[in-house]
Amino acid sequence: MLIEVERLTKRFERRRPSRRPWDVLTRRSVPAPDSVIAVDDVTLGVGAGEVYGLLGPNGAGKTTMARMLATLLEPTAGTARICGHDTLRDGGAVRARIGVMFAGERGVYWRLTGRENLEIFGRLQFMPGHAIQERSAALLEQLGLAERADDLAETYSTGMKQRLNLARTLLHDPPVLLLDEPTAALDPAAARATRELIRTLQGAGKAVLLTTHNMHEADEVCDRVGIIDHGRLVAEDRPAALIASAGVEPRLELQLHGDAAAARQILGADALWWGDVQDDGGIAVAASAPGGWQSAERIAASLKAAGVTVIESRLREATLEDAFIKLTGSRLGGSLESI
Ligand SMILES: Nc1ncnc2c1ncn2[C@@H]1O[C@H](COP(=O)(O)OP(=O)(O)OP(=O)(O)O)[C@@H](O)[C@H]1O
Ligand SMILES: [Mg+2]
């Protein structure tokens, strides 16, 4: 395993503003200091040639985990090793073996061009000049930045800065990659190119830890996913196995026409959601179809027998998103919860 995480825990002291003059007016009492456990006793491993997706709601602890692996944060308890090197005791060796990218953070110098940025970062990694030039040119091309390579990075769009950040992360060809939401700000084409790039990393034997909120992406790219909620790893498996074990049933989406009451009687127990009955008698319904096509056919036949026309029916297999919502509860993430 190139990434080994054992019982890793991070506790933050919750920082709140201290007493301010206007608190007298708002009658705010200063809360007692407390702490939040961002990562709670997590054990996981990522092998060579494996893409591991860390999924979780906002505030679940994904970035904190990546920051600890990148030696940017000290764990409260537990250990993390990269290629056998302890992140706490052997930070230098760890940093030489990782490529780190945090979306939305300033990972590149805005006052330099894209190419100059890669040049500087290559030198910081002690790469020989010719290797920097070759790798930079290939990555700038692959990430669609070749045309703008000699423009200042501050003139790039958000997605372009993010792509440059990714190029910087991959430049020195490290065996371990920590990618925190690498496709967050990217347009569909750039996101697809990035996913393809991640797959080539997998083929090249890298260990990739990836966080994303895009379930479709996780399903497509990751060999294994771990679902983290309130700092705890609540499930871990291959995407298909996770979907199967979460026990989410396929959904049958129907567009019906006819007697709503008759349809309601037939679908009663199976119906998950009823759309408005439109003036023309159109009804949109979603029903659970635990038996897949067999139950879909049974439902359609009963509706037809009751004189309800099935205009359109679509069986939607359970997805990783369904499994994610079931495993983490359908609540919104922490940051919205407290509004
Ligand atoms: N520097 C800090 N000081 C105090 N608390 C922090 C700090 N950094 C993170 N936290 C808290 O730790 C928890 C986990 O945060 P983290 O950024 O790891 O979540 P995340 O899973 O990356 O969320 P998101 O999907 O929104 O990026 C949150 O409750 C957050 O408020
Ligand atoms: Mg995060």
Question: What can you tell me about this protein's structure?
Answer:
- The protein has 339 residues and is an alpha/beta fold.
- The chain contains 13 helices and 14 strands.
- A 6-stranded mixed β-sheet has the order 6-7-8-3-9-10, with helices on both faces. Strands 2-1-4-5 form a 4-stranded antiparallel β-sheet.
- The longest helix has 16 residues, at 188-203.
- The chain binds adenosine-5'-triphosphate and magnesium ion.
- Adenosine-5'-triphosphate is lined by residues 12, 15, 36, 38, 56, 58-64, 334.
List the helices and strands and how they pair.
Blueprint: E1 3-13, H1 23-26, E2 35-46, E3 50-55, H2 62-69, E4 77-82, E5 85-86, H3 91-96, E6 98-102, H4 114-124, H5 129-142, H6 158-170, E7 176-180, H7 188-203, E8 207-211, H8 215-221, E9 224-229, E10 232-237, H9 239-245, E11 251-257, H10 260-267, E12 271-274, E13 282-288, H11 293-305, E14 309-316, H12 320-328, H13 334-337
Parallel strand pairs: 3-8, 3-9, 6-7, 7-8
Antiparallel strand pairs: 1-2, 1-4, 4-5, 9-10, 11-13, 11-14, 12-13
The structure holds adenosine-5'-triphosphate and magnesium ion (MG).
What's the short story on this structure?
The chain is α/β, with parallel strands linked by helices and 339 residues long. The chain has 13 helices and 14 strands. The protein folds into two domains: 3-20 and 33-245, Rossmann fold; 251-317, 2-Layer Sandwich (Alpha-Beta Plaits), CATH 3.30.70.980.
Task: Record keyword descriptors for this entry.
single chain; alpha/beta; Rossmann fold; 2 domains; six-stranded mixed beta sheet; four-stranded antiparallel beta sheet; 14 strands; 27% strand; binds adenosine-5'-triphosphate; binds magnesium ion
